[in-house]
Structure formats: structure tokens, C-alpha cells
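Thought: the user wants the 3D structure for the chain below. I'll pass the sequence to the structure tool as-is, report back what it returns, then summarize two notable features.
Action: structure_tool
Action Input:
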Amino acid sequence: MIKHENIVYIANISTIGGVETYVYELIKKYHDLDIAVVCKACDAKQKKRLKKFCPVYIHHGEPIECKVAVINWDTSIINYLPERIWKENLKPGSKEGIYQGVHADYTKKEMGKLPQDPRIKEYLCITKEQMDKFPLMTTATNYRLCRNPLELEEKEKPLIIVSPTRLTKEKGGDLMLQLANSLDKQGTPFLWFVLTTPEYLEDVIFQNHNVIWVKNRLDIDWFLDIADWVVLPSKMEGDSYTIREALYRNIPIVARQLGYFDEYGIKDGKNALIINELNVEEVAKRMLNRLKFTFKHIEDGYKDIFIPSKSHYKENDRKVKLRCTFIGGFYAVSEDVQLEQGDTIEVDEDRAQELLSFHCFEVLP
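Observation:
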């Protein structure tokens, strides 16, 4: 037998959804009461977070002893509740009874009909709008407004990690996955944005659920501006522009030791964490404390190479309209668009010359 003063029953608690959030917020707020969640099935992660606040029972047909039951659309659970809480002769003013939450607009045809049962004490409408519509949903008159609870939690800010990379074999996707898993293992919340081209979506790094693929783009500064760390554990780099751009913005890096690091003043513990296969867990722990530093910009050498003459260049922004003539269609890589025969595209003059060289387009007036 399941025995508690208050029962919240939801037939199926899934991985994510509005009802799932409702149950969590309800239990979180009223966990000081003798309260329990009962369901037929429950997602493991949802069950874990609910159990921080109250017992969670998977119902197998056993009787339930309670004074108040709050249920959702599945009224079959009423058959397992004590008769006394739904008998008509309850004392006036008593809280005991079965309350059914109305979490959908049953005036919409696609929602079907509101499940009803004469043993329901009150229907709980979650908004005033819903309460006003309630007479259109059913002939029942025992309903009232009962808004859903929501209280924000103070949570640790997640680490923001950014990795703009082509993710070829030497770029260290396997080491990145080890680092992501170590951060998970130590309980560190993080979001890791990997900016790369679609052909690398099979890389192992994406096996971690906190790693988010972002299609490759040129304006990576948007992501660097929010980054706590830039992680690029490549085995071979001549001079990584991404590493330098991160350091110029005073964002620490996680990287393998590369030959030019000493020359540039990239040092472990100062502006970088040097990672290898043997110290991944140590690096994960050290990432909890972001390094603070100012990085001196590196002077380039081209002022001594180019002839100092004044530019007279003016960007040509004239647009040209092209029509695809190729029967098999054409994928325009720069524009990331598939053009079928007869489709048109408008590009600048230089790009038009490139596309015309494929002999798959004609110029339109």
C-alpha cells in the first residue's frame, strides 16, 4: 500500500514537457508536506530529480491511502483511492478529495474531450482564460482557478566552452570527449559549442550530451565573447588564429603543448591549461577557476614586406541575377543553397563570375 497525506498522480512522466515541469515545481515547493508522486511510468532522470524532494512510486495496482489526490487526465487511478475522500457526505470546508488539473484547452477539437469522473471534488483551471472557457469544455460546475507554482532556483552558472575547428583526426576530438566526460563526472555544469562543418558530425565529441554543434561560420567572435574557455587540443598547428584571437580577448585556452607556445608566451597556469591523455581529469578540475591575464598582441612582419602605397580599392557591390540551367541542379556552397534547374539567385559580381565558370548558369537582365 502507498500511504501519504497528499498524492500527486501523473500517468506517464516523460523526459521533458510542461506537465513534467509542473510536477517538479509542485513537489519542489511543497516538499515539506507529507506528499508523494505516483505514476505508471517515469523517466529515470525525472525520477532522480523528483526524489530529492519526495518519494516516487510506480503504481502496480496496489491501494493508495491518502486524504488529497491531485491527478491529471488519467482518472483510472481513482479506483485505487479510498472511498471516503470522494463520498458526497464530506464535511463542509474539508480539503479532502480528488482534484483534477486541467492542463490543456479542451475546447480545441484536437485535444479531444476533457476526461471526467463524478468523484472529482474540483477541477483546477491553471489560468483565468481557461476557467472562463471551462463551461465550453464540460457541464461540470465544480471548478476553480488554481495557478501552477514556479519558483526560480539559484543554480551554478555553467562553463561556456567554445571550439571552432575542422575536427580532422589530428584536431583531438577524442581528447575533447574525454574532457567533456570528466567535466560531467565531477558534476560541473557546462555547455560546449563546437563550430565545425557538417561532415564532422560523426566525430566522437558529439557523444556527450552537453556538446552542441554549431554550423561553421566566420563570425566566431559572437561565441568567443561568451566563452569561459576555448578548447583546441590539436596535435599540429603552425600558428592557430583561433588560439591567438582567444588570448587577445583574454580568454584562456585548453590545448596540447605546441612548439611555438613558448615563443608567444603561452604558458600553463598563466593563460592556458596544457592537456594530454594523462592529465584530463586534472585539467577538468582546474577549469573551475578561470585564469585571469592580459595577453600582449604579437606584431606581424608584413609592414617590412609590402610596398607602402595608397589603396584606391572600392568594393564592387553591384548585384547580378543568375538562373540555374543545369538539369541536375547545383549546390552553391558559399550560399548554402540547393538550386534546381530554373531557380534564380542574386549574388555580387565577383561571385557571379565564379558561378558562371561552372557553365550551369545564365545571366538574367
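Final Answer: Structure generated. The two ends are 81 Å apart (CA to CA). The chain has three domains: 2-145, 159-286, 319-363.
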